[in-house]
Every structure is written in C-alpha cells, then in structure tokens.
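>> received
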Amino acid sequence: MKRIVFFASGNGTNVQQITEYFANNQQVEISYLFCNNADAYVLERAKNLHIPSMIINKQSFYESDMVLEKINQIHPDLIVLAGFLWLVPASLIAAYPQKIINIHPALLPKFGGKGMYGHHVHEAVVAAKEQQTGITIHYVNEHYDEGDTIFQTTCPVLPTDTADDVAAKIHLLEKEYFPKVIDKILFA
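>> returned
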C-alpha cells in the first residue's frame, strides 16, 4: 500500500482531484491531511472525502516534533504540498528526503520564492508580459521553490490575458498533470 499525506492551506481543489484520481486504486491510500488554516475549505473537502485531518499551528510545526511524530506513525511514501504556504522545517525534510513534493503555479525558477503563491504569481506573470507560463512540480528542500524539478509543462499567455485568465489555465494544468506525476513517482 502506497500512502500519501497532504499539507494544504486553502481551498483544496488539488487535494480533491488527487484523491478522486486514486479513488479506485487499491494500492494507494490517502492517509492524512495537515492544514495550517482552521478556516480553509480543504478541511471540509477532507471530511467529505473521509480523510483524517489535523489543524496545525506554528508551534506544533516548527517548535515541537508533534507533526513529525504523527507522520512517522503513518509511514507515508509521499508527502504532497497542495497549496501549503509555510516553509517545511529541515527536520521533516531530513526525515523524508526526496519524499516531499510541491506544485508551483509558474515555470520555476521564474516567479518563485517567499510570497509567490496563487494570484500573486499570476499577476506577476501578466505584469512581466510573459508569453508562456505553466506549472512546476518539484521536490521540497529548505528554501521556497528551490528543490529539484520533477516535471514542468507550459501554456500560452496571450497579450489580452488577465491574472484570472492565467489562473484558469494553470488550474487545468494542475488538474491534468499533478495526479499523473504523483502516480508516476509512487510507482517508479
């Protein structure tokens, strides 16, 4: 059995899409969700998808081993950051090297780093008059958006595109590719 643990901060569309992708796969279990935002809709999605979840705060994540101990009990094959906005502590990265992945809504190394998430990224892409953007799925290290790239794919940015237009294109790429890349990593 391959086990996936999620970390998320927001709406949870990627969590839902990935969970639905693996719903009929008897070899994959969506084991747990950690969320750092008590008001995040991802918690409602997790409840509806029967995924156990825990709300974490900075103290439990950075100043104790509580989260790491819980993860160690689960023995995940992959930890997936799906819209998780905090930097992962070095202790967790050391415990799960090359087992933590993230998706970023741009073509790294462009438009990455602290504060570059969601709409901030799409606005920056449009403001820079980029002709293309895309998604990057990468391993997580001690720095925002600097881990080794696993997969990238692109989409065009038209001169008339707004940040919302770019966001819609990125969501389609995430929906199509994130579950497939996870599948490939789990069964490589």
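>> The two ends are 14 Å apart (CA to CA).
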